[in-house]
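INFO batch 0412 | record 1 of 1 | parsing
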Amino acid sequence: MKLRKAIALAGAMVGLAACQSTGPYPSEGVSPIFSFPVTSNETPYTQCLTALQKVGGKNKPVFSVGEVADKTGQINYDDNGHALTQGVSEMVISALYKSGKVRLVERLDLRIPLAEMKLAEQRKLARNIDEYKLPASDFIVVGALTELNYNITSGGAQLFIEGIGGGARTVVINVALDMRVINARNFTVAYSTSLQKQIYGYEVEANIFRFFGDRLVEFDAGQIQNEPLQLGVRSVVEMGVYQVMTDFLGLPVSGGCNLVRTDHMANYLKK
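INFO prediction complete | emitting C-alpha cells
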C-alpha cells in the first residue's frame, strides 16, 4: 500500500513539473543580480604609462606584438585550466597603447585583415588592393611568463581548546616575466628585461565545535584576502612596457615609477 502511494505521489509530481516547466519561477524569467559596475582595469603602474602621454614628441616608432606565452607549465587542477592567464600578449598591447608613445600595428591575429586583402584582390570588396599601404614594424615585442613559484614563504598559527579556537596564516608566491624587443630591420635583440612580482595573501578563521546531546554543532567564521594573481601578471607586464619606453626609448621616468631593485640574490655571494 505504501509503495502504491509513493508511486502515485511521484507520478503527480512529474505531472505537475510537466505543467509548470519553469518550476517556481515566473514565465517571463527572473531578474538577474547585478552587483558591481564595470570599471577600468588598472594596476599601480598604469599611471606611469599614462603619464608618458604628456611627454612631447611626434615621431612615434611602430611597434608590433608577437607571442608572449605562458611557459610556466603550471596547471590549476581545481579549476581544470591554466594557473596563469593566456592573454599576456593582449596585456602587452594594452600597455603599449596606454603609453601613447608608439604606433601599434596588428601582427598577432591577421586572419580577418588578410581575408579582406584577398577579397580586394578578387574585386569583391569596396576597396582596391592598391589602397592597402601597410606600415612596417620598427620593433617587435615578444616574451613569456617564465616563473610561478608557490609558497615562497608562509606562516601562521592555530589554537583550539575544547572545540573553540581560531587561527591565521599568510602566504607569498611570485610570478616572473621575461620580455624582449626585436629590431624588425635586422632581427637583433635590441632590449631585454626580466621582472618578478611577489603576491601576498592571508586568511583568518575562527571555529567553534560543540556537542549538544548526540549532535555536533559547528560554527565557522573567517576572512580570506588574496592579491589577485592575474593582477600580478598585468603589473609585471605594465612595468616591463614602461621599461621599454624609458630604458630603451629614452623617455623620462616619472616620480615613484622607478623599478624597485633588490640585492637578495647578490647577498648570497657575499656570505
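INFO post-check: Residues 66 and 109 are 9 Å apart (CA to CA).
INFO record closed
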